[in-house]
Design a protein that fits this description.
One of its GO terms (molecular function) is DNA-binding transcription factor activity. Keywords: Activator, DNA-binding, Transcription, Transcription regulation. This is Arabinose operon regulatory protein. The chain is α+β, with helices and mostly antiparallel strands and about 260 residues long. It contains ten helices and seven strands. It is globular, with a radius of gyration of 21 Å. Helix 2 runs antiparallel to helix 3, helix 4 packs across helix 5 and helix 4 runs parallel beside helix 7. About 45% of the residues lie in helices and about 20% in strands.
C-alpha cells in the first residue's frame, strides 16, 4: 500500500494475489481500480455480477459493502486508488460537476482504464517528481468526473484561453525549478483539475511532461556545447545525472554522453 500525504492522503494498493479472499467490508473512501491480469469477484454476496476481469474498472462508493475473491489460476493483479470523499467532492465543485453517478463493480471503459494504469505507474515510480504526481493524479480525477459525472458541463474551447497561455509562460519561466501544481493553478486562475485536463487536451502534453520537455531541450543545447553532464543535469532541473540520462534516452534514443560526444 502506498500513501501520498501530499495528494490529500490518497492511498494506492498495487495487488497481485494468487489465492486471496477479503472479508465483506467497506471503506470511508472511494475505491477506484482496474484489473491488470486475471479476475476478482468484489460482490459481498459472491454474485456473478461482481466479477471484474482484465481491463475492467471498479468504482465503489464510501460505505458500499463489498468483498474480494481471486478467481481462476492466473490470480489477480490490480491497482486500486482510495481517494477521500472530501477530495473528490472538492474537485467536482471546482469543475462545476457532480460526483460519479455510476457506482458499479464492473465497468467497461478502455480509455479511463488506461489512465488508471498510467497514474499508478507515475505515482509508484521513485523517479517521479512531486509535480509529476500532482499532475497525473489531478488529470486522472478530472477524467473520472468527465467520464462518470451525471452532468458533464466540461468543454475545451477551440482557442487557447488566457489561463492556458499563462500556464505555458509560467512553465517556461520556471522550467528548471520545482513547480507546485496548486501554485501554478492559482497563478493562472484555474482549478488544478481543469488546468491539467485542458492543458493536455490543447498542447498534447500534461504540464509536468511539458516542463520535462523544456528541460530536455535546454539539456540538448548545453550538451551540444560540451560540458559536465552532472552539472548540466542539475542546471536543467533534473534530480541527478542518472535521472536525466534515463529520460533523455527514452526520448531521443541516445544517452546524453553519446549526444554530447557526437556534437563536439
Amino acid at each position: 500500500m502506498h500513501r501520498f500525504d501530499s495528494l490529500d492522503g490518497l492511498e494506492l494498493l498495487v495487488a497481485d494475489f494468487s489465492d486471496h479472499r477479503f472479508d465483506v467490508h467497506w471503506h470511508d473512501t472511494w475505491s477506484i481500480g482496474v484489473v491488470l491480469r486475471g479476475a476478482n469477484n468484489n460482490s459481498a454476496k459472491g454474485d456473478a455480477d461482481g466479477i471484474v476481469c482484465r481491463g475492467q474498472i471498479s468504482i465503489i462508493a464510501p460505505g458500499q459493502m463489498h468483498a474480494g475473491t481471486t478467481l481462476g489460476n492466473e490470480g489477480c493483479h490490480y491497482v486500486m486508488f482510495y481517494p477521500s470523499n472530501e477530495m473528490l467532492l472538492g474537485a467536482a465543485e471546482s469543475m462545476a460537476m457532480h460526483l460519479p453517478a455510476i457506482k458499479g463493480k464492473r465497468i467497461e471503459h478502455r480509455t479511463f482504464a488506461k489512465k488508471l494504469c498510467e497514474t499508478a505507474m507515475v505515482l509508484t515510480d521513485t523517479q517521479s517528481s512531486h509535480f509529476d504526481r500532482e499532475v497525473i493524479w489531478s488529470h486522472c480525477v478530472a477524467d473520472l468526473l468527465q467520464v462518470f459525472s451525471p452532468w458533464q458541463s466540461f468543454t475545451v474551447a477551440s482557442d487557447i484561453s488566457p489561463g492556458l497561455s499563462r500556464a505555458k509562460e509560467y512553465l517556461h519561466d520556471h522550467h528548471a525549478q520545482e513547480v507546485r501544481l496548486d501554485i501554478l493553478a492559482q497563478a493562472v486562475g484555474m482549478s488544478k483539475f481543469h488546468l491539467c485536463r485542458q492543458f493536455s487536451a490543447k498542447f498534447g502534453l500534461s504540464p509536468s511532461r511539458y516542463q520535462r520537455q523544456l528541460r530536455l531541450q535546454q539539456a540538448k543545447a548545453l550538451l551540444s556545447r560540451g560540458g559536465d553532464i552532472a552539472e548540466i543535469a542539475s542546471a536543467c532541473g533534473f534530480a541527478d545525472q542518472s535521472h536525466m540520462g534515463r529520460i533523455f534516452k527514452s526520448t531521443y534514443g541516445v544517452t546524453p554522453r553519446s549526444y554530447r560526444d557526437r556534437s563536439i
